[in-house]
Design a protein that fits this description.
One of its GO terms (molecular function) is oxidoreductase activity. This is Vanillate O-demethylase oxygenase-like C-terminal catalytic domain-containing protein. By secondary structure, this protein is α+β, with helices and mostly antiparallel strands. A hairpin with a 2-residue loop joins β3 and β4. It is globular and about 50 Å long. The longest helix has 19 residues. The two termini are 21 Å apart. It folds into 2 domains: 72 residues, N-terminal domain of TfIIb (Single Sheet); 194 residues, Naphthalene 1,2-dioxygenase Alpha Subunit, Chain A, domain 1, CATH 3.90.380. 16% of the residues lie in helices and 36% in strands. The strands form 4 sheets. Strands 7, 8, 9, 10, 11, 12, 13 and 14 form an 8-stranded antiparallel beta sheet that branches. A 3-stranded antiparallel beta sheet has the order 1-6-5, with no helix packed on it. A 3-stranded antiparallel beta sheet has the order 2-3-4, with no helix packed on it. About 4% of the residues have low confidence. The chain has 4 helices and 16 strands.
Length: 278
């Protein structure tokens, strides 16, 4: 059963482009739902045929089991001319949807999990960075890390700058150095659909300045990164995300994670969370 304020949030439930006229069966927070398309619009219904809230944005269909009190968060780069929009697809992960987002926010694991792509030894130090709450969103800025191949468009190792943004409990937006256009940011998002408290579908989406790389290569590059994360996510203990500050010991590199957990707890975003030590 869905719990807390997360009931009234928006969640990705399918790729809009892949709806082919047949009802797509999936789940949201333990409840079976069906997604269908009629021309340029989509419909989402519950197991008892109740129509659910729906919107189509960033290449995905979004819905909610509750009654969202605000529109889906804005990503201005989605309306910027010249960008390529990449629907990466979906990866099912046996982990808490909140764990999936927290892992996306973590850069300390780059050299060890994404070796020779997003990081490499001996470049393992996480430099000082800033974390703050902006308009009730978690932001991490001034994040810098050496990466052998920061993006598919990168021709060699560079020090990449990042900004992380958490606008919703199961969504994160990453802004990172754009190798072909240093004055712009590449945008990589993680949209997480909570199927259950310990199971989720992850829908990455990108808005890039890259006119050269074939679309298939862009998709494969991002899928490779996330599939490297999946084995880590599926073996984390405890499986739910601990929100009690005494349950895990953070380090300097965990500032974003600490801010995210506090933000979740303050808003009663607890679906997929462990509140007390067991």
């Amino acid at each position: 059963m869905a719990q807390g304020a997360m009931l009234d949030e928006w969640y990705p439930v399918s790729l809009f482009s892949q709806l082919d006229g047949k009802a797509y069966k999936t789940a949201l927070m333990g409840e079976p739902i069906e997604v269908s398309r009629d021309g340029g619009s989509a419909t989402v219904t519950s197991s008892d045929r109740r129509p659910l809230p729906v919107c189509v944005r960033y290449g995905h269909v979004w819905s909610s089991l509750g009654a969202p009190q605000k529109d889906l968060f804005s990503i201005p780069e989605a309306d910027q001319p010249g960008r390529r929009f990449v629907d990466v697809g979906v990866v099912r992960v046996r982990c808490s949807p909140l764990r999936a987002v927290e892992n996306f926010l973590d850069i300390a694991h780059f050299p060890f999990v994404h070796t020779d792509i997003l990081g490499a030894e001996p470049h393992t130090e996480v430099q000082n960075y800033r974390v703050e709450i902006r308009k009730d969103e978690v932001w991490a800025t001034q994040v810098k890390f050496y990466q052998p191949q920061a993006a598919k468009s990168a021709s060699g190792g560079i020090t990449t700058e990042y900004m992380y943004r958490v606008p919703a409990p199961t969504c994160s937006v990453l802004y990172k150095t754009c190798p072909p256009r240093p004055s712009e940011w590449d945008v990589i998002t993680l949209f997480v659909q909570p199927l259950a408290e310990d199971l989720c579908d992850v829908w990455p989406w990108m808005a890039l300045f890259d006119d050269v790389t074939p679309m298939t290569d862009l998709i494969h590059f991002q899928q490779t990164i996330f599939l490297q994360d999946r084995s880590i996510l599926e073996n984390q203990i405890p499986p739910l995300l601990p929100l009690d500050p005494g349950m895990e010991i953070p380090t300097r590199a965990d500032l974003t994670s600490v801010a995210y957990r506090r933000w979740l707890k303050r808003h009663d975003y607890t679906y997929g969370a462990q509140l007390v030590a067991q």
